[in-house]
Amino acid sequence: MGCCFSKRRNSEKEAQPQGEEEPPKQYSWDQREKVDPKDYMFSGLKNETVGRLPGKVAGQQFLIQDCESCNIYIFDHSATITIDDCTNCIIFLGPVKGSVFFRNCRDCKCALACQQFRVRDCRKLEVFLCCATQPIIESSTNIKFGCFQWYYPELAFQFKDAGLSIFNNNWSNIHDFTPVSGEVNWSLLPENAVIHNYVPLPTTNELQAVRISTEANRSIVPVTHGQRQKNSDESCLVVLFAGDYTIANAMKLIDEMVHLGFFLIRTKEVSMKAEDAERVFRERAPEFLQLLDKGPVIALEFNGDRVVEDCQNVVNEIFKSTKTFVSQNKETASRDIDGFYNFADIQMGI
Fold first, then answer.
1. 349 annotated among ligand-binding-site residues
2. Which of 154, 138, 81 is nearest to 111 (CA)?
3. CATH code, domain carrying 294
4. In-domain check, residue 61
5. 201 and 234 together in one domain
6. pTM of the prediction?
């Protein structure tokens, strides 16, 4: 017994003129714009200033290789970036959704943001970094790290497109796969290091169209103290819960506290469950349980003498109508901080 659909297909074939071939089928992937790998590569350059403007990379992979004494600026988000065999280069990379991998490079200065950062067979790199996971170095020497600080109008949207949080930055938490006894393969740049002295702004007319600032108070990524030695034995934890203005509130609080002379040690954006809140907030957990379903929380750790008292005053004055967790006193603050970041690092696999 024949199928009516097969009869229809047969009749369509019979109706097709003799000698005329059936046109090839068109699939959705055939309609995609063809990608030329050369548009996503800088190779074999010497003494040049080159770059890509916002919107020109749009999440593609990028390759930088065999460049010498070049200034390279990628003002867009990308999938992954590999930098091979580069010498005496200055490199800026906008947010990278996956990994940034330096191999066999030397005497380079860089500023970049990424999910994963790895260095292998390199020497003398100076890197201003925003990295969501633990940065890794391998078979490398004299690698120095600082906190990423950079601004241009499109950068915040590029972080979102790359799936990166501006508050998840492990720039100073370095893992050395190949430590050598008695030697230090990596270190932190001085806290007063000025980023544009390492990674200067571009000088070509095309790239100067990007409105850049390297001032710390304008940086999209909060500038943190990291794992440098703390100036005080008193710290304070603040946790802001998801809402319409959570990011703006966090940045406002950072500005206020830094203006008062306190140090921002580290930040984190992470989702919490009820059991996490009970472990971190303990007896105060019931105050916050209903807020957890709204989205991730943002945590800030500040340091300095009298920081708990001053932080409570700032929060009470500026965020009166916003539910916020603040350490209650100096004695419980350390427990608050350890509890929160232990939970957050485990959840994020750090």
1. no
2. 81
3. 3.30.70.141
4. yes
5. no
6. 0.88
First-to-last alpha carbon distance for the chain, in angstroms, is 64
32 among annotated binding-site residues: no
- Is 6 known as a binding-site position? no
Which residues span the domain enclosing 72? 39-209
Q: 341 near 276, Cβ under 8 Å?
A: no
* Residue 3 confidence (pLDDT): 52
- How many domains does the chain fold into? 2
Residue 246: inside a domain: yes
HSE at residue 204, side-chain half, CA atoms within 13 A, is: 12
Per-residue pLDDT for 1 more than 60? no
Which ranges of 120-205 would DSSP assign to H, the alpha helix? Answer: 155-161, 195-198
* pLDDT for position 321: 75
Alpha helices in the chain (DSSP H): 4-15, 155-161, 195-198, 246-259, 274-281, 307-318, 330-347
99 is in an annotated binding site: yes
Query: Does some domain include residue 51?
Result: yes
Burial of 150 (0-12, 13-18, 19+ CB in 10 A): buried
What is the domain-level CATH number for residue 54? 2.160.20.70
Average pLDDT of the chain is 91
pLDDT reported for residue 21:
62
The predicted pLDDT at position 30 comes to 54
235 lies in the same domain as 193: no
Supply the pLDDT for residue 7.
Answer: 47
250 and 335 belong to one structural domain: yes
Residues 83 and 183 in one domain: yes
pLDDT per residue over 51-89, tens digit each?
999 999 999 999 999 999 999 999 999 999 999 999 999
205 and 59 part of one domain: yes
